[in-house]
Amino acid sequence: MNDIQAILVDLDGTLARTVNANWHAYNQALKEVGVEITRRAFDAKMQGRNWREFLPEILAEAGIDADAERIALRKTEIYRTSLLTIEINTALVSALRLARKHGLKVGLVTSASSASVHRILEAHDLRDIFQTIVTGDDVRNHKPHPEPYVRAAEDLEVPIGSCLVYEDSEVGMISASQAGAQVIQVVF
What we know:
DNA polymerase, domain 1; 2 domains; 8 helices; 7 strands
């Protein structure tokens, strides 16, 4: 194992349990355009993916001609009302704060939109932990592509092989592994 210089963490399912808030907001936004989707089907489509990938699929399967970006924007509006219902992985937060105290760099790497990420971090007073935040809006290729993790390591000016990544999803672990980082799966 390489010497660890930075810790990179995923947001949804790793640092925070956002699945219920996401489901509620996306479900409501999709219903507004006439799309009915079960929770199970939705979870299978969205896990670890950016809305640009899963919303067009959901709309196509439902036979609905609607603008995915408008639905994502509406989801963000609805999501704002449920930020404080999001459960934070307090053990991981404590570990990240301790890592920073001991000189390690810390970054957040997520497929979520920048607006949603920053609202969550502000609502839960977590912004100060991270020296870089890479969102789905910041990269061309989303997880499972390695670009998000490579970008975070570059932002922190550390070799990707010296990064320890905490991830929950298969696509996130693939992304981090293919980037060359060391990966630990988190079950939260």
